[in-house]
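Q: Entry one of two.
A:
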Amino acid sequence: MKLSVIIPVYNEVENIDEMHAALRGALSAFDHELILVDDGSTDGTVERLEALAEQDREHTVVVEFRRNFGQTAAIAAGIDHALGEVIVLIDADLQEDPADIPMLVAKIEEGYDVVSGWRRERKDAFLTRTLPSRIANALISRVTGVRLHDYGCTLKAYRREVLQGFRLYGEMHRFIPAYAGGVGARIIEVPVTHRPRLRGKAKYGLERTFKVILDLFTVKFLISYANKPIYLFGGLGFLLGLASVVVLGILGVRRVLYDEHLVRSPLLLLVVMLFILGMQSIMMGLIAELLARTYHESQAKLTYTIRRVLNRPGPST
């Protein structure tokens, strides 16, 4: 099978030559291509990438952005330009070892759709990187239902078909296993080597954790409610309506037992607000249902995914 290795690159002029050589050595036994996506580097990385592309025309592809768009955009561009049946992602900072890629590909050949690297012995600062990452990983695993120790590890291998049907935005690249799990992909996590950064500077800090948590809301909605948004909005509207009935019941009891006038109680205003919010939420759910149907029908998108079909000729076999 052809292997496409995607490497997002941003200001890694000190590492890129060694990284390229390590990748070529690790992948010598594979039919492969290296897709290096420059994310608006300003330190001379582009010139080094041009030289590598000139030296290795057969295996090296360089995609250069006009400006910095972020790691997710770089990965999305690499996927768009990849030709391989198996797609591997890896960082350019040499903290992840290219020698681990054959192990990931071997797991793909065993029948898995996603093989996720796990930096079991991580060589980063504990308080600013490792601890926030562990918290984020636990939260993502709980919300999405796809249990992984290390969503943040870029080193992952995918069958091409599990990457089809969605676009990447924000910091969404780390959620690809969750998207794949949502369509029934077989996922496995394997320990990989992690090394301390020797040259260059880390591009992300503690602030990235907060962006990931915000993106998690979007991912949960897309995985669980994109096809039936009425379940989310309607459920919320039902709870708000039920709360308004409960508060109204409390007002009735207070009127009977304590002879309190309803119009003088601020709880009456709360009843009205809860009821209106509940109805609005249900209406939003109905509108979202129409939008979901328009989205699927206008683009001929199916609401299911098929792994294979036996004894039936056609494109899905």
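Q: Entry two of two.
A:
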Amino acid sequence: MSIYKNILLINFGGIGDEILFMPVIQSLRKTYPDSEITLCLEGRSSAFVKLTDLLNSYFCVDIKTKNKYIQMLKLYFKALTGGYDLVISSGANPLIALLLFLTGIKTRVGYKSSNLSQKLLTHCIDLNKNQYAAKMYFDLVRPITNTEFELPKIKISEFDKIENSVLVHPGVSAISISKGITKTLSAEKWAELIKLLLRKGKKVYLAGGPDDNDCIMKIRSELQNCDLTNFIDLFGKTKNIFDLAVLIKKSEVLICSDSAPMHIGVAVNTKTIAVFGPTDNKKLLPESDKFHAVTNTAKCRPCLWHKRQTTCETLECLNIDLNDIINYI
């Protein structure tokens, strides 16, 4: 097996995509412990680097903006001048394969997405989307590492769980909404779920990011006349994504939507109950007794990405029976 001293990884997407990509980083670090590993990711996901100590450096390329060709040139010059002897890219765009070829990096790994990629990449990997996405990414390193697949892992000090605690995180994404995509319950549904949990005697924590602001305000309004003795509102109290990861680690149970907090829940090994509407839980949540997807029987789901690029107006798939969530707890 070749020894790679300077490795470039390219993985575009949201923070959830970066967490799903972690098994690749973990495998490379185990196989090449002394190598320099650099990650290229989108600026919107740069907070991800706070969740891992396996990288030596990173840089951001916003490939999905109006200036995408300028950004691709930035990636080209970074790759050209970085002294890399191995590059692994998760992108399926043939232009990325061409760009990597032009950098002269000796070993180039990517998916078999076109005739061009097959000619320009040194390791062309079959793209199998019909599996847990983290395993799909891990296929990229199978030819060049000697480790078995492991779930994403975020290293956080061990401590006792908060007894009888449930953390609720709506997981609203402003970017998704701007693209006509809804993947989470309504604020009214989240509030009703919190009421049910409180009636069950649970200690309920509420958290969220800046995108959750409107949803949280509505939840607070719905809870005004309730007994909130065991309710702790932590919205705005987590200063960064690592603080959120610590809070998820401390909680006995995380309830969320298909969002970055769900992937954090998996990576810190906290019991996670995730609401799935239009997306495919089999591709985004690993099979485990600890991680549960709550869905309904809508015949049209899952539809997002492979059938549709936006969600429909009825959102029948998000008509979730809250008792199904309670039953998992």
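A: Comment on entry two: Residues 165 and 203 are 5 Å apart (CA to CA). The mean pLDDT is 93.
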